Amino acid sequence: MERLPLNSPRRLSRIGGVLYLVIIALGLLGETVVRGGIVVPGNAAATAANLRSMEWLWRLGFAGELVLLICAVTLTWIFYVLLRPVSKELALLATFFNLVSIAIEAAVALYLATALFPLGGAGYLKAFAPEQLYALASLSLRAHDYGFGVALVFFGCTCLILGILIFRSGYLPRAVGVLMQVAGASYLLDSFALILAPGFAARIFPAILVPAFVGEASLCVWLILRGVNEAEWNRRAGVPTARTPAALRPSP
Description:
mainly alpha
């Protein structure tokens, strides 16, 4: 990549693309390797045994979730800077939706830590039967799943607005804007299905999230490889261009 000044919107977009890649990678690792490798659906005892034997991996996944959220806050600011020339009001609305989503996700991430509490060696836990402790740990995991679904409602709204802004921008591909709107609709459908019809949600998951992954991945890759069209961004932002040299100006 060519060297770009620190205040270049293209450089900023590439930084955003790298942050987006970190977010996607940590999210996939947390879902597939950590939770997917430890949580046994429908078997609280086996899940508890895995949590005890692989506590280090679970804690590593929790730490990764916090890093993901730090990157998400920074990326939210970058998206606001990049897209406010299109509509400052919509860019600000997308920022608010995303900050609410991040706050909820940070709060429900605590359930990942509390799932370990019933499985510790504290003396007060002797008042519970082992099966009760397993159930408490599983309830924490279930609460995390629903809380994350609520966070995705607000993130889905964020994706819809970002898609509209990208489509209108002229300095990012319209196709990416459409894909981000599809991603937002997918997140909203999945989250409301989880809340209103859990059985239906189980049938459509994870297929419903494939369009969401495609939309976010396409934006991530474009930001890293190409970034924004800087000349068009400057035009939309009203950034003055360098003055034409006197020798090249037309004579009166």
